[in-house]
Amino acid sequence: MPKCLFDFFTMIYHIEGRVFCMYPSMQLDSINPVNPEKLLSKKGEIMKNEFIPASQVVANELSDMIFLQKLYKPNEKLPNEHELSAQLGVSRATLREAIKILAAKGILTIKRGSGTFVSVPEEQTADVFGLNYLKDKMKLVNSWFEFRLILEPSCIRLAIQNGTPEELQAIIDSANRTTALQSTAKEEILKEELIKEDQIFHIAIATATHNDIIQLIMPSLATAVKDSIITATQIGTDIKSIDNATTYHAKIAEFIEMRDADGAAMAMRYHLSKGIRDLNDSQRENATQKNGL
After folding, report:
1. Most confident of 30-44, 145-159, 184-198
2. How far apart are CA 147 and CA 149, in angstroms?
3. Is this model's pTM higher than 0.90 or not?
4. Is 122 a residue whose pLDDT tops 60?
5. Where are the domains of the chain?
6. Residue 217's closest CA among 105, 225, 164?
7. Domain 3-126, CATH
8. What is the pLDDT of residue 252?
9. At residue 275, what are phi and psi to the nearest 5 degrees?
10. Nearest 10 degrees: CA dihedral of 256, 148, 155, 229?
11. What is residue 183's predicted lDDT score, i.e. its pLDDT?
């Protein structure tokens, strides 16, 4: 990989003990003490890491088997302790601690006398990073908005560059359906339809990029879109969320029709920035009301 590209993707950040590299203009060796090479796993072997407990590394590996590799499906029983510890190349004690970590998050269920089972619903196994299990949902929605603000304006540029006419039309069609729903989506019965259409719109953009990494995170992106709307409903900004989606999806679609990547990226940036502002404003208003100020 060219050094300039390597430097572009060298930020270390943690999600539940995981490490990913995604930040511009930072040298890997300047981020001490984390060494990403120590976090890689080989087939049949868990690489030891002096900075993360072995049980957490094994828990991450098991999580990958469920969410990424799809080796174990919802309600499926894991291999017995002896087989699984041998497969992962770890002690049975470490494996037990890892299973307890995932059981505490609701990913696994331990049934005495029967074994250990995958307990997550099927739709949540699409959450490749296990983000559904972070406890602070409001913080998670804010973090997703910030992440999407970094990612999606560039995604729409890439989609216009790489997407087929059919794929770009699918984005436009979704925006048109959102507009059609807008007049009635404020009724509770149609909010679910709006959520689905919002997911379709953003996933259609990701699909049109033809980028393998972006497509890998598509299921989590769909969850992020859904969570943002559900959270908006809970804190009373769902009408703003509907209006925001309708207005800016239509603007983005107009720029796509003109194949104007700069305009589409700008509209996407405004769309997500407004979502962040609305969410933060409502949080402040709710806090003020709660404190009686």
Report:
1. 145-159
2. 5
3. no
4. no
5. 3-126, 136-290
6. 225
7. 1.10.10.10
8. 97
9. -60, -40
10. -40
11. 67
CA dihedral 20, 270, 192, 118 (to 10 degrees): 0
Hunting for tokens 């589409």 — which residue is that? 264
For the record, the structure tokens of 92 come out as 């049975």
Both tokens of residue 222? 């769909």
**Tokens representing 167?**
């794929």
Least reliable range by pLDDT among 51-55, 130-134, 205-209, 220-224 = 130-134
Task: Say which residue the tokens 């299973």 belong to.
Answer: 99
Q: First vs last Cα of the chain: how many Å apart?
A: 56
**How confident is the model over 129-160, as pLDDT tens digits?**
555 555 666 777 788 888 889 999 999 999 99
Indicate the class that CATH gives domain 136-290: mainly alpha
- pLDDT on residue 19: 38
CA atoms within 13 A on the CB side of 143: 14
Instruction: Report residue 110 as tokens.
Output: 């331990």
Asked if 3-126 and 136-290 have one fold, the answer is no
Question: According to the model, what pLDDT value does residue 262 have?
Answer: 96
Evaluated on CA atoms 135, 137, 142, 148, the torsion sign reads positive
Distance CA 230, CA 239 (A): 12
pLDDT of residue 192: 74
* Cβ neighbours for 144, distance < 8 A, ≥ 6 positions apart: 224, 227, 228
- Calpha distance 62→102 (Å, rounded): 9
d(CA 185, CA 97): 47
Tokens for 45?
């072997």
